[in-house]
Automatic annotation (TrEMBL):
Keywords: Monooxygenase, Oxidoreductase. Signal peptide: none annotated. It comes from Virgibacillus kekensis. It holds the Pfam family Bac_luciferase. The keyword Cell division does not apply. Residues 10-315 form the Luciferase-like domain. The keyword Amino-acid biosynthesis does not apply. This is LLM class flavin-dependent oxidoreductase.
């Protein structure tokens, strides 16, 4: 299966490993089954020719993965060529040295396929868990990112900061197979985050979960302007898009099938955040309409949405989250298959 990265976009999938009840049966699969299915999904994505597989980090019993590097190392042994990334690593509450060495180890184990996507996280349970204060939310991320980039550039590091003990001629081992690990910053919607990613010259991954794609265009402009002002070349300033997706042979079938799982997903995610919001079918129809960023539909519909965003952002990567809300694994398999066999060839033709 051909990839389209030579034409400017890599296509892949990612999981946050949520463990939600089936909206029809009320039953919840075990953590073991969820993990087995995640590894199998990565294997299928690799065999189908997709470019990237991502695994997220949470520290809650309703999510299966707290250590992406460990899970990705298992995936590395079940795959051959697909890139392996975190989506995301919660850098504010991770020790940058431990994070870097874990992913450098993954890079060695996988033969040079590891990446880090760092973010501040949508949940805050990791702050008390690792002894940090949410009052330092932004400052922690800035300091840890500063150190992470230095670790990526140097085998021996001297460094001092506010939150972590200083380093003096510390040897950072192992070194990755790649000259440096690709590092991205996940951006939800704040101009400050986009500007920081640009200044640092790292990739920017936009989490676009819905709405009009046009509202994210200013973030891309801020990112590239900040990067150029900081002296980085345009070819280094890569933009990725991540979002929820569900594919079927027709758009109506995709909507009919996905709505119960999508409504289920937001029901338990909003409950985790102390909100009782429910999504009606009418709301869902609006959220998944052709003008929005929710990638639900036929392969043709999904391609149209990716191409519209590509016109706006000129992005180089698209990652689809296809396993939310208790979606059964056979439906996840179908989305992977349709992405690889239908979406990628159509994108190839349109972007060649």
């Amino acid at each position: 299966m051909s990839s389209i990265k030579q034409n400017g976009i890599e296509v892949g999938i990612y999981t946050l490993a949520d463990i939600g009840p089936d909206p029809f049966t009320g039953k919840t699969i075990s953590t073991k089954q969820r993990m087995t299915e995640i590894i199998e999904a990565a294997k299928l994505a690799d065999e189908a020719g997709l470019d990237i597989f991502g695994v997220g980090e949470h520290h809650r019993l309703d999510y299966a993965v707290s250590s992406p590097a460990v899970v990705l190392s298992a995936i590395a042994q079940a795959t051959k060529r697909i890139k392996l990334t975190s989506t995301t690593s919660v850098l504010s509450t991770l020790d940058p040295v431990r994070l870097y060495e874990d992913f450098a180890t993954l890079d060695v184990v996988s033969g040079g396929r590891a990446e880090i996507l760092a973010g501040r996280g949508a949940f805050i349970e990791s702050f008390p868990l690792f002894g940090y204060s949410t009052d330092d939310y932004n400052e922690l991320f800035s300091e840890h990112m500063d150190l992470l980039l230095k670790l990526n550039e140097n085998e021996t590091v001297s460094w001092s900061g506010k939150f972590r003990p200083s380093l003096k001629n510390a040897e950072i081992s192992p070194r990755p197979v790649q000259k440096q690990l690709p590092i991205w910053i996940g951006v939800g919607g704040t101009p400050e985050s986009a500007a920081r990613a640009g200044r640092l010259g790292v990739g920017m991954a936009l989490a676009i979960l819905g709405g009009d794609p046009m509202r994210f265009k200013p973030l891309v402009d801020i990112y590239r302007t900040s990067g150029l002002d900081a002296g980085h070349s345009l070819d280094k300033l890569n933009v990725g898009v991540t979002g929820h997706a569900y594919l079927a042979n027709t758009t109506e079938a995709a909507k009919d099938e996905f709505y119960p799982y999508y409504a289920n997903y937001w029901r338990y995610v909003n409950r985790q955040r102390g909100m009782g919001t429910r999504i009606s079918r009418e709301d869902f129809e609006h959220m998944s309409s052709p003008q929005t960023a929710l990638f639900v539909g036929s392969p043709e519909e999904v391609v149209e949405k990716i191409l519209r965003q590509h016109e706006l952002y000129g992005h180089t990567r698209f990652l689809a989250q296809v396993d939310i809300g208790g979606v059964p694994f056979q439906k996840v398999e179908r989305s992977i298959d349709l992405l690889a066999t239908k979406v990628v060839p159509m994108l190839n033709r349109n972007l060649s």
